[in-house]
């Protein structure tokens, strides 16, 4: 399981870098916005400052993340449909994330933030900021 999570992390970072570098050429977009809070739990329970969430098969993977206050979350859409990551109370919203695009938010306040995709409200996720 640990090897799988490490491999998944490498794949997500590589994919994110590819999307960002595509954005430098004008063909991709990345949104960087400040949100209320942010932290991520690593494979052995350590809280991280940055985490990636993949949107695939109409789900946020992983659905729950824990990050450090001041940390970032990057959502990357692998579905053909447009998605968002929008906090239930409206404290943060990535805006539309098209296929193979990413959006990054910074979380500056501690708390637990539940979010959905506004187009597909059955898609649910949680960001825990410590």
TrEMBL record:
It holds the Pfam family Cupredoxin_1. InterPro entries: Amicyanin, Cupredoxin, EfeO_Cupredoxin, ET_Amicyanin. Residues 47-129 form the EfeO-type cupredoxin-like domain. This is EfeO-type cupredoxin-like domain-containing protein.
